[in-house]
UniProtKB/TrEMBL annotation:
CDD domains: proteasome_beta_type_4. Coiled coil: none annotated. GO terms for biological process: proteolysis involved in protein catabolic process. Its main location: cytoplasm. This is Proteasome subunit beta. It comes from Arachis hypogaea. It comes from the Eukaryota.
Length: 236
């Protein structure tokens, strides 16, 4: 007969996030969905990894971005691989669209939360099917919504105000990329977990495209960066 300690040891949970990624920002543009994330992976407060892909195509019509625990994201990708494989086995000429995948993810996250074994991620799911653009997000406790632009992590506080001011439904691809770069630059300046190596992906009716990573151009000669106490009372 197994002891209580043996049965407890068989259950493994992510009690604390170890290697984590920061914000994902996404928006609808004229022809589809654009999504951006940096490639940093933080081990605690240390930026340990700088080439982590957090944007992944899912099936034929969807694109997934994740912030939070990287190993939990890998587990979610395994779930989605099984889901897409099972759907393809029907061979009925239909395939899961972004709305169905997003609904599935909301159920997975909420189910794991109810088991007190959450997946420590916030997910962004976008896609295009039959000419319909879809963009939504879900966090680690199952809270979810659909919108014209979404962001996770610190981006939810710093990037979305920019998107509310500057986003419109007729954004061209070039305008959308420029807007995402602006958001990612703001996050780089203010988020200690962000790196300037970012990746942008798009998905249209034709499928997903992951563009090569590139470095954001930054400017650090502002007087506030050189001496943040300039003009403050009692400074010298």
């Amino acid at each position: 007969m197994a002891s209580n300690s043996d049965s407890v040891s068989d259950t493994q949970r992510t009690l604390y996030p170890y290697v984590t990624g920061t914000s994902v920002v996404a928006l609808k543009y004229k022809n589809g969905i654009l999504m951006a994330a940096d490639m940093g992976g933080s081990y605690g407060s240390t930026l340990r990894y700088k080439s982590i892909d957090r944007l992944k195509p899912i099936g034929k019509h969807s694109l997934l971005g994740a912030s939070g625990e990287i190993s939990d994201f890998q587990e979610i990708l395994r779930y989605l691989d099984e889901l897409i494989l099972y759907d393809n086995m029907w061979d009925d000429g239909n395939s899961l669209g972004p709305k169905e995948v997003h609904n599935y993810l909301t159920r997975v996250m909420y189910n794991r939360r109810n088991k007190f074994n959450p997946l420590w991620n916030a997910l962004v799911l976008g896609g295009v099917k039959n000419g319909q653009k879809y963009l939504g997000m879900v966090n680690m406790i199952g809270i979810n919504f659909e919108d014209n632009h979404v962001a996770t992590g610190l981006g939810n506080h710093l990037a979305r105000p920019i998107l509310r001011d500057e986003w419109h439904e007729n954004l061209t691809f070039e305008e959308g990329v420029k807007l995402l770069e602006k958001c990612m630059r703001v996050l780089l300046y203010r988020d200690r977990s962000a790196v300037n190596k970012i990746q942008i992906s798009k998905i249209t009716e034709e499928g997903a495209t992951l563009f090569p990573p590139f470095s954001l151009k930054t400017y650090w000669e502002f007087s506030a960066f050189k001496n943040p106490t300039v003009g403050a009372e009692g400074s010298w």
